[in-house]
UniProtKB/TrEMBL annotation:
GO terms for biological process: response to hydroperoxide. The gene is yaaA. This is UPF0246 protein E9531_10210. It comes from the Bacteria. One of its GO terms (cellular component) is cytosol. Signal peptide: none annotated. It comes from Lampropedia puyangensis. Pfam families: H2O2_YaaD (PF03883). Belongs to the UPF0246 family.
Length: 261
């Protein structure tokens, strides 16, 4: 089984990490380099318009783009799972996983990325901002979906062939999962849906659902999950599997308002 996650916009390169932590290089450095060469042509005002971000953020990311190098070192990068710092990664809490758990994650977890295509947890990551949904034409590709669909799908197909069960558990957002050609993979795709009770009704609350995706990824890592049925036991932070609301390939987990911390 492969578990897919989205990246995070927020990055953390300040919190100390174990200097002996293993690291690997991303699979698509060449493709990322092509994208970054194009990004380096963008001025702060152009980048602000392209990404819909503030002038301050645009200036920061122009600086990041010009500092980016196809050579990854401990000085200019850190492991992806330690660098991403959004709601998903607050749920995952990768910094508290031991080496054995991280090694399992390395073989079962894939982080989709607008710049890097696909990242393993321990792949080195240089600071960047490029969301998959950005309408950024490069070469013959009109957007990042076209740019990544073939290499990303081929990569996931290869990774699936090394798994005991050819199953993808999608914990990524629609924005990122749209880059995957699921027909080419010919694999079972399981979606996990997380709903929280609010005013007596269950609904998807974005930041809580993102955190829950990270919690599910951590659950899978800690339990070394290799079969879809084991996902039903997920109960982190008060979530429970709802069989009646679920289908075979869409697993719904609900949490009562009283169980939310």
């Amino acid at each position: 089984m492969l578990f897919l996650l989205s990246p995070a916009k927020s990055l953390d390169y300040e919190t100390p990490i174990d200097p002996s932590l293993a690291s690997t290089e991303p699979a698509f450095i060449e493709q990322a380099h092509v994208l970054m060469q194009a990004l380096k042509q963008q001025t702060p005002s152009q980048l602000a318009a392209l990404m819909g971000i503030s002038d301050k953020l645009a200036t920061l990311n122009v600086e990041r783009n010009h500092a980016w190098s196809p050579r990854f070192t401990p000085d200019n990068s850190r492991q992806a799972v330690m660098a991403f710092n959004g709601d998903v990664y607050e749920g995952l809490q990768a910094g508290t996983l031991d080496d054995v758990a991280l090694d399992w994650a390395q073989h079962h977890l894939v982080i989709l990325s607008g710049l890097y295509g696909a990242l393993r947890p321990l792949d080195l990551l240089q600071p960047y901002r490029l969301e998959m949904g950005t309408r950024f034409p490069v070469g013959k590709a009109e957007n990042l979906y076209q740019y990544w669909r073939e290499p990303l799908s081929a990569y996931l197909l290869q990774r699936l062939q090394a798994q005991a069960a050819p199953v993808i558990v999608n914990l990524a957002s629609n924005e990122y999962f749209k880059a995957v050609d699921t027909k080419r993979l010919k694999a079972r795709v399981i979606e996990c849906v997380f709903q929280d009770e609010k005013a007596g009704q269950y609904k998807i609350i974005s930041f809580l659902a993102k955190r829950a995706r990270g919690l599910m990824a951590r659950f899978a890592i800690e339990q070394r999950i290799e079969h879809p049925d084991a996902l039903l036991g997920f109960s982190s932070e008060g979530y429970r599997f709802d069989e009646q609301a679920s289908t075979a390939d869409q697993l719904v987990f609900k949490r009562k308002e009283s169980d939310r911390v």
